[in-house]
Amino acid sequence: MQEPLVSFEGVAKRFGSYVAVQKMDLQIHKGEFLAIMGSSGCGKTTTLRMLAGLEAPSEGVIRLAGQAINDLPSWSRDTPMVWQSLALFPFLNVIENVEFALKMRGIGRAERRRRAEQWLERMQIAEFADRNIAQLSGGQRQRVALARSLVVEPEILLLDEPLSALDAALKVRMQSVLKNLQRETGITFVYVTHSQSEAFSMADRVVIMSRGKIEQIGTPQEIYRTPRTRFVADFLGSSNIFPGQLTRDAGGRAAIATPSGDFVLAGGGQGATPGQAASLIVLDTKMQIHFQPPPDAVNTIEARMIGEEFIGATATIYFETGAGQEIRVQKSHEELADLPLAVGRSFHLSWSPADGHLVPE
Q: In this protein, which residues make up the domain named ABC transporter (predicted)?
């Protein structure tokens, strides 16, 4: 098996009594796009800064290409970083900004000019080579920052929320630029963000962190379909969560008793023990809406419609059960066309046991 490009081995970071990153083990593979996401203060940026050499681990070892780099200064690591603020030099023009890292490495003037021009061309900003940074748009500055980091042809590029200052439409375009760039160059990207849409649209694997701890690592599809913890399901916001206690129904099937009802589980409850506290996770796209009680459905619940939200080709309908739990259902407009949707009206919601995912507490 190929050795990982980066390994965090029992790495933790403390600032006095505050634990920013709990003891973690993480491997990053050569040529992959890895996103680290979580809310503010979860430890994602501290993790990136330790890899960049801007923070020293309190314990554990970080390896790059098999070499321990804990004591290696940041300028010797070949791990350039694209910052949220971009950190471009206002006193240099565009091409001089891109040339800067090459100049620091002692590359001759003609060669660094050739390589800088090549990257400006690749980033589709060659026409702005002689412009002042202040004369560029946000998206153009973003491309200059990427060209400046990539012109040294590193093995790995670190990106700390680089799109956060851009407007929504420009973010989507830059996501496409980043994804294509990573695929074309084969450079390993480690991308920190709090945005689920950014991480899931670009990354091969996603790391979700909370309170300095890794909650789950997996492909976007794995994490979206089967969140491993209650926190991950809550954080993604696309699941309905029914906390309760494992039990058996009248037919002896594995089930979960919740304040909103008792629901049958698939696969014998995934090996869970009756009496154990757990949560049933059901994706909002897997729930069906019926005006009349569905005759063949196994898991059904009656709820009152309390609102709706339109998002492009889909709509999210919000319901509330008699127990006060909010439930969301996402459907295409075509699927909703024949339903008499109206706020305050009662409907019956259903889902297959196979579409429920159990998370033990």
A: 6-236
What are the start-end ranges of the E strands in the chain? 6-15, 18-28, 33-37, 59-64, 67-68, 81-82, 156-160, 188-193, 205-210, 213-218, 239-248, 254-258, 261-264, 277-283, 288-290, 299-311, 314-321, 326-332, 346-351, 356-360
Closest CA to 242 of 175, 316, 174, 328: 328
Q: What is the pLDDT of residues 219-267, one digit of tens each?
A: 999 999 899 999 999 999 889 999 999 988 767 788 999 999 999 998 7
Task: Give residue-wise pLDDT tens across range 148-162.
Answer: 989 988 999 999 988
For the chain, the domains span 6-225, 238-360
Tell me the residue length of the chain. Answer: 361
The predicted structure's pLDDT at residue 271: 61
CATH of 238-360 given 2.70.150.10, 2.40.50.100, 3.10.450.50, 3.40.720.10: 2.40.50.100
- Decide: 180 and 9 in contact? Cβ < 8 Å: no
pLDDT tens-digit map of 6-47: 999 999 999 999 999 999 999 999 999 999 999 989 999 999
Give 355's DSSP letter.
G
- Rounded Cα gap, residues 2 and 279, in angstroms: 37
Considering only CA atoms, give the Rg of the chain.
25
What pTM was computed for the model? 0.87
Joined together, the tokens standing for residue 257 give 């008793």
- Asked whether 220 and 206 are in contact (CB, 8 A), the reply is yes
Matching CATH number, 6-225, of 3.80.10.10, 3.30.420.40, 3.40.50.300, 3.30.230.10: 3.40.50.300
For 58-62, 115-119, 165-169, 329-333, which range has the lowest pLDDT when averaged over its residues?
A: 165-169
Whether residue 52 contacts residue 29, with contact meaning beta carbons closer than 8 Å, is answered with no
Pairing type for strands 299-311 and 314-321 reads: antiparallel
